[in-house]
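Protocol step 4 of 5: obtain the predicted structure for the target chain.
Materials: sequence only (see below). No template structures provided, no constraints applied. The aim of this step is simply to have a reference model before the mutagenesis design in step 5. Sequence pasted as it appears in the construct record:
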Amino acid sequence: MKKWIWVMLLALMVVAVVGSRGSTFFEQRPSTVIVERIPVETAQSQPESKEVENTLQVSTDKLLTHIQKLNFQRYTTKERSLTRTYITNELKQFGWKPKLEKFSEGVNIFAERGGTNKAAKAILVAAHYDTVAFSPGADDNASGVAVVLEVARLLGSRSTPRTLQLAFFDKEEAGLLGSQAFVSKKARLQNLGGAIVMDMVGYACYTVGCQKYPTGLPVTPPSDKGDFLAVVGDTEHLPLLNAFQSSQMVPSTALNKQEANLPAVLTLPIPFKGLLTPDTLRSDHAPFWYQGVGAVLVTDTANLRTPHYHQPSDIPATIERSFFKGAAQVVVNTTTVLLEKNEVLETQPPS
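Step 4 output (structure tokens):
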């Protein structure tokens, strides 16, 4: 995750965007949509919500095991090779057939599980696996890698209309090189409906003032604590972004009340492919936007929250377990719903 991405990004909280075609801005209506924690009783009363089965509940132990196994700098050629070995071995254990895709500066990992409806466009879940020098990158971005692996475990053998694709990008920290190489293969993009990209999803703070915001923000921040999950998407694919708003609908048979408390989700629609806010383009979702493919960035807001950003102190002990598990569950829930439906994920013009 690149520094300063969130300074411009969170400033958009004061602007509401309605579509990318003929966008309208309302001064008093913020563009963020905050999904509060939903009690189990409320979730039960939502007949249109997609219930998540017991078998699709994430495992804290498995998530944290991945973090521990990747507790080393993943910067040099040798270190990144070791990382790829770990990821591919895990995928094979879950029944996937990963492929290494080399490009001039590195190697991406790709795998897919076909859907039952060949006409339905695929959903991609992705994260970068490299780090900056001198940082073991527990949050940036072993946390994202761990969630993709948990998606692989839970959904690999599940039959769904849409195809599920997984990608682990190399060289994000060097300038999004892996994701740029990935989207350069135009043929694969033709059947890609949307991408969910994770970059830092494991850190939370619960003291007043621990979450930073740009100075001069002319609205009251949604929280003075760093306890929410941010999801950033382009206004040309609002249905993809909005899918995260219902991600907390879980059945009482699957979770008790305490476990059902997932982190609040703050969604941020970005107009004009980030042209007006270039700092919102500094992660692996951005290359998809410029190929016309819907993509969202799921994150804990990086250096606006964690003091360990790009530091040697970004170690497994700094991962906030409850938040991390909740963030992973939000991604699994949303991915499941998207895979089950064949709705168009592009923003439709008003009728």
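Step 4 remarks: The two ends are 39 Å apart (CA to CA). Strands lie at 33-35, 99-103, 106-113, 122-128, 164-169, 192-198, 228-234, 264-270, 295-299.
Proceed to step 5.
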